Prior knowledge:
Elements: E1 2-6, E2 27-29, H1 34-38, E3 50-52, E4 58-59, E5 62-66, H2 71-84, H3 94-112, E6 120-124, E7 127-132
Antiparallel strand pairs: 1-5, 2-3, 3-4, 5-6, 6-7
Helix pairs in contact: 2-3
This protein binds zinc ion.
Amino acid sequence: MRVLVATEETQGDRADDYTWATPGELVMFGVICATDLRGTGRGCGCGRAFAGLHSERATTTAQVAEWPSSLDDVVLAFRDSLARGGWLDFGGTEEEVHAVVVEAVMEVLLVADRYPAGTVIGTDRGRQYVRQPAAAR
Ligand SMILES: [Zn+2]
């Protein structure tokens, strides 16, 4: 199964790059603020961010990686991170909470599935782009 992990590869190639995530940790897409969504004025940069599941820090660079664990383990990791961040405290039923977790996982899996492992990607308000193609094997 391919997932997205934080990477420092290609960091700094763009003037607006930043990274506080831990290289190699799982990442997901975070919530994007209204200013960044509109793309007007000086946004905070969250529209370009991947969110580290463990560090709870953001990065503008992610790498597609083959992940050895099961889908259940990935769902559990996302659930744990979202719960720690308070994102699951919206008063939903267990079913609704699970749906939020699965949606966050699927968003990542669908993107990771589009590229070969090793590809470094960026994201801009929900659209991803290749920063560095996977190295030839
Ligand atoms: Zn923002």
